[in-house]
Automatic annotation (TrEMBL):
Name this polypeptide is given: Dehydrogenase
Matching Gene3D superfamilies: 2.40.40.20, 3.30.200.210, 3.40.50.740, Dimethylsulfoxide Reductase, domain 2
Signal peptide region: none
Recorded family membership: Belongs to the prokaryotic molybdopterin-containing oxidoreductase family.
Annotated source species: Raoultibacter timonensis
Highest taxon listed in the record's lineage: Bacteria
Statement: the UniProt record of this protein carries the keyword Oxidoreductase: yes
UniProt KW keywords: Metal-binding, Molybdenum, Oxidoreductase
Classification via SUPFAM superfamilies: ADC-like, Formate dehydrogenase/DMSO reductase, domains 1-3
Molybdopterin oxidoreductase domain segment(s): 93-555
Amino acid sequence: MTRERVIGDLSAAHDGTEIKYTCCAQNGCWDASCIVRCETKDGELVSLSADDSINAGLPREDVSEEALWQGMVQMRPCAMGHAWKGELNAETRILHPLKRIGGKGPGNGHFVEISWEEALDTVAGKLVEFKEKYGPYCIAHSVDDVFEDCGFKLAPWFGMGMAAWGDSSCSGTTCGEKMHLGFDMVGAFHGNTDVCVGFEAPDLFNSKLIVLWGLDPLVGWYGSVSYYMKLAAERGAQIIVIDPRYTNSAETLADQWLPIRPGTDIAMLLAVAYVLYSEGIYDREYVDRWVEPDGFEAWRRYVMGETDGIPKTPEWAEPITALPAETIRGFANLYATSKPVHLHFYYAPAKRHLGEYAANAAMLLQAMTGNLSIPGGCETGCSLITPPRMPFPSVDWQQAAPEYNPPVCYNIQKIAEAIIQRPNLDSGTIDEETYRALIGSPPASPLPNIKMMIVENQYPISHHETNKRMKSLEMCEFNWGFQWHYGQASLEFMDIVFPGVNMMFESRDNYQLGSERFMYGPNGMRNYFLYADKICERPGEVRPIHWVHTEIAKRLGIAEKYNPRLANVSLDEWDDAVHELYHEAYDAWAADPTGELKALGIEPKPWNEFLKMPVVRIPIDKPFYPYKNYMEAEEEKSPFATLSGKIEFSSKTVELLDMRTQTWYRGGLEPIPVYDPAYMEGKPANDSFYNPKAERYPLSLVTPVSAYRQHACLDANPQLRDECYRHAIWMSPVDAKKRGLKDGDVARAYNEFGEVRMPVYVTSRMMPGTAAVFHGAWYTPKIEEKTENMPYGLDLRGTPNFLIGDEHAPHIVGALLTAGLIEVERAGR
Ligand SMILES: Nc1nc2c(c(=O)[nH]1)N[C@H]1C(S)=C(S)[C@@H](COP(=O)(O)OP(=O)(O)OC[C@H]3O[C@@H](n4cnc5c(=O)[nH]c(N)nc54)[C@H](O)[C@@H]3O)O[C@H]1N2
Ligand SMILES: Nc1nc2c(c(=O)[nH]1)N[C@H]1C(S)=C(S)[C@@H](COP(=O)(O)OP(=O)(O)OC[C@H]3O[C@@H](n4cnc5c(=O)[nH]c(N)nc54)[C@H](O)[C@@H]3O)O[C@H]1N2
Ligand SMILES: [Mo]
């Protein structure tokens, strides 16, 4: 091919294209709502490129110091953001509604394509039938019943559905925020508080020391936060990573990597507290002002060993954590003398046995050193809540007032248990109290009787104890929802499947986490918003999600309540009608009724002008830091909504409630963070080195998120899967040698919960005695080979959730667990 020909072809492809913008905001990367520039032609996506709404044409290094402090930087997507094109046209894409014929589960039954009419009529019919037959508490949403919400969107008007407490991400960290700091994360989600605990990325420039404790931002918090960490390091901040893996962030950002045995973080934190207490190196002024004194003394006595005879010295922590006492001492001294410190204890180490104690201890250390609420500091809890920098437009959907309020009936991580144990309750094998305790059901709530599951995610494989999850889906009588691809385990258990639209590109539906199309920037940088437009046409018979819910609502007679403004809009007019609602919302915002925009220096463009570059961004004057909105207030009002109004090292709520009697929470919880390898009811946790089964399953497994998947999304993406990486189990050379394994060998990783087969990645990036498998790989069953621990067939791809148990004892907050004990050996023996 000649040069001219290549250039000619390229020009032709890009001739007459139109530019639109959307946002890569899956429930992956949590908070990075990266801006994607899309070139489209005749309803097709031609190419994807990065945000050019600001500093276009400049390499990032050329952005001025002032612009960096102001957060006036691009939000560029990573490789995953660029790989979506491959998803849209994938051969495995489901293009028509499907109906199951025959039984559920891999190898059973099959799908036939049906009409939309039939699919919608069937679902609506089943909803009416099930409500009549089983009452309102027979339907659950496999993942979206979280944070005391109900995932069934029609529940408030159809009068059917439950809410659940807990979540997959941050329950372990938010528990301590509530107990010790009085910050109510659930309330914050529901808009009931004006306290903000997060930080804005440029505030990292104020930090002298940044501690990434179980956080790999270059992978898991892509976008402004990880970029600012790199810039902070360049400007002299020291960065320490505490993680059993030598992560991308450890490699690229860190001055020091502290490899810690997974799940032992609480021991290290207590040893750090020991050094601070015993050497008196903490911020007395801050403690006097903000910390409740009795609790401070109670924790001191525990840490010093005055209450249990065990001083929590660095020497005590050494054999537990595998970190030398000298290293822990050195860390404690550096920590105490490096103010401001951004110590960021993240979710993963809290998603395990005793994890909440560790998260809580991290918050208390930040309080003790006066780093919890200062520029350059960090509250270290959920860390996601920052106030928006400007008012954002929002659509007036005019939904009717809810007529039914779904009660909180169970813990979402106990959903499989709720289904599997229900027949035992019904037959009298277990009593009501036991059932409630097993599923985290509050004493006065109705009991779940789940017969129908809405599946809009990868429930079985993206959540612990996958085999049990699959069984629970099999036990449900009727499952329906949306799915994108053939080849996903979730599909195998569904009765009616709606072809899933890719809402980032193919519709103007609300985003997965409920955000409207005026998508604001992430926590950490909420100084912009964009209009995330529909980019290309939908393939096959794929239709918008909101349209589908509205059609079901019509069949139930509640469309005028659920979606009055679109109830009578035809499918052909749907996208335009939604666009018009956003237009109206924009105009209402641009009219600036309160004068706030003017005060902020925002001069809104007319809608048609705005659409050419639909991003509004304003400079950050002074970066936000945790609790700033209270700390700088004129009056001395405490930001801490604890019983005492201070930071409670010993939580008074827990003292008063005696969590041991709270069956809802299932088990004991101390008011102070403690190290407690003695387990509730004499039962050791599944992920603990102290579990006797560690003799059989000696490797401690962690299952982090990866740089090439957003949970289970993108696992089959050809651009990523075949070109970027190898999904493999990380092992240290010592552990591999012991097992006769070489890099690339195919191994079986197993325990009593399941077995997966996958290649081994032998690397000194993994500390000895531990292993890691990135989560989100799609279960690929070998149906001919069923075993006791793999009743649906061996997994040939490597879904780590097969290896993780769902037991929470004595874990009280009901978070998702992501760690376990395993053994690995060469496959084929
Ligand atoms: N690329 C990408 N990013 C994502 C997501 C995604 O799917 N893909 N998902 C997003 C979502 S919804 C969430 S909630 C977050 C989750 O965010 P995290 O919970 O932070 O994610 P993980 O990757 O599980 O864990 C982070 C690090 O903790 C380490 N770790 C595991 N166990 C321990 C331990 O016991 N002690 C210590 N010290 N370290 C430990 C892991 O090795 C890993 O490097 O990520 C978000 N970001
Ligand atoms: N072992 C282990 N397990 C984990 C974690 C871990 O770190 N380790 N992380 C946990 C965390 S923090 C979370 S939040 C959960 C997430 O778990 P899930 O919420 O189950 O997330 P996904 O697995 O990505 O499943 C989401 C699915 O929704 C569908 N979907 C996504 N976008 C669209 C769309 O635009 N339209 C339609 N119709 N469908 C769409 C796709 O089929 C996609 O696969 O996983 C948890 N599981
Ligand atoms: Mo999450």
